[in-house]
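Okay, is this right?
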Amino acid sequence: MEKKLSPNQTRECPECRGTGKISAQNCSNCDATGQIIVHSHGHRHGENFHDHPHSHKEPHHPEDDTVHGHRH
């Protein structure tokens, strides 16, 4: 069974592996925090509809209905 993501679940950043650094530089993927926020949106590929987990540096706010897209 597929694990459902909570609206704003944090995970270790895959780029820096939770250290916040890549070599001697701050990780730009997580803003040097070592954590990313992961949540899921449903989206459609032709006739197939599925959840698409993706990361954000900052959480979405419930009152913010700004539309954003994703490329594959």
Remarks:
- The chain has a mean pLDDT of 71.
- The chain is about 0% helix and 40% strand.
- The CA atoms of residues 42 and 51 lie 4 Å apart.
- The longest strand covers residues 35-45.
